[in-house]
Amino acid sequence: MRDEVRTFVVEQLADMNYDVDDLDDDTTLGPSGVDLESLALADLAVRVEDRYGLKFADDESEKLALMTVGEFTTMVAERVAATSDNS
């Protein structure tokens, strides 16, 4: 599941016109990494929510900016797994 989420996230970043050529699991989503600004982070979060049926809390956006691609994809995969376990 994690690989699927990572692939989806990278595809969405490319679709949002971000350079994903040198992207790896240690690249941060915010400044000094992908450099997503708050609106772009919100856009990515909505895309992930729509695709995987998740909901991010409003106060999570600052935390997302500090996450690496690997941390974000792991968190999403864990939430998807927890959601499917509960259904």
Describe the protein in words:
The protein is mainly alpha-helical and 87 residues long. It has helices spanning 2-15, 38-52, 61-66, 69-86. α1 crosses α4. The longest helix is centred in the C-terminal third of the chain and has 18 residues, at 69-86. The radius of gyration is 12 Å and the shape is globular. The mean pLDDT is 93.
Briefly characterize the structure:
This is Acyl carrier protein. The protein is mostly helical.
Structural class: mainly alpha
Fraction of residues in helix: 55-70%
Shape: globular
Number of strands: 0
**CATH C-level name:** Mainly Alpha
Describe the secondary-structure layout.
Blueprint: H1 2-15, H2 38-52, H3 61-66, H4 69-86
Helix pairs in contact: 1-4
Task: Give keywords.
Non-ribosomal Peptide Synthetase Peptidyl Carrier Protein, Chain A, about 90 residues, mainly alpha, 4 helices
